[in-house]
Amino acid sequence: MEGEKKFSIENKEKEPKKIVVEIGPGDRPIISRIPSNKEKVEYRACKENNEVFSLKFGDTFIEVDLLPEQSVDVFRHWARHDRSGNRSHLTQIKEMLDKRLPDGVRGEVVHADAQKLPFSDNSLDIVFMANVISGHVKNDQMGGVEATQRRILREKENLIKEIKRVLQIGGALIIEEEFTPDVSGTAAWNKVIGDLQQDQDFDVQIIEDFEKEDDRLVLKLTKRNKTDSQSSG
């Protein structure tokens, strides 16, 4: 795509390390909620305490922040500057990453439209999303809840398509949903989550389920090789 910028990982071929990307909401990156130390940080499912992913020396963690003027998320984070009004929240996120990430883990913050992710094909190991399926992911001047069901569904489907593009074979999409969506997004949420659990491009693991846990869904979807998808279809 003309004029499109790709986020590059230096020496990826020479020194292949794990690249973990979290897609917004940027005010609340996953790293802020995970106990960490100087050697390793681990994200675990609450009840089973199974490790979903970890970060250690040599890995890269990238927070993809949805464009602040052009996104509405489930938490309704409108405050995008500190009290002085002089610093972008991106600066604050970067400072938090530098403070909390283990030694030797690179932390970056990237502004992006979630439907046009700035990464090369098959370049990421893990994509993590918390409450993005239940929120909005693109420009919505109508204030979020007034968007049409059709539009909300289209942006979710575009998002999943982009994630499939950037994930490498064997890479994982991890989806965490803690809250039911707004009325405007319920149908899209149900369809996208339902379709993902039947998606032939992924091996699906339900780590936590709304029906078994208290309002929490965690899915781990591992990207299959195309030949594997075709043979299982």
Description:
With 233 residues, this protein is of the alpha/beta class. Helices cover 21% and strands 27% of the residues. The chain has helices spanning 89-100, 149-166, 186-197, 226-232; strands spanning 19-23, 40-44, 51-56, 60-66, 106-112, 124-130, 167-177, 202-208, 217-223. The strands form 2 sheets. A 7-stranded mixed β-sheet has the order 5-4-1-6-7-9-8. A two-stranded antiparallel ribbon has the order 2-3. Helix 2 packs parallel to helix 3 (186-197). It is globular. It starts with 18 loop residues before the first strand and ends with a helix. Mean pLDDT is 76; it is low at 68-86 and 140-145.
Short description:
The protein is built from four helices and nine strands.
Strand content: 25-35%
Distance between the termini: 32 Å
- State the low-pLDDT regions, or none: 68-86, 140-145
Helix content: 10-25%
Task: Output mean pLDDT.
Answer: 76
What is the radius of gyration computed over CA atoms, rounded to a whole number of angstroms?
A: 17 Å
The number of helical segments is 4
The ordered H/E elements are EEEEHEEHEHEEH
Report the principal-axis shape: globular
What structural class should be given to the helix and strand makeup? alpha/beta
Give a count of the beta strands, DSSP E runs of length 2 or more: 9
Biggest β-sheet: strands ordered side by side in the sheet: 5-4-1-6-7-9-8
Biggest β-sheet: count, sense, barrel?
A: 7 strands, mixed
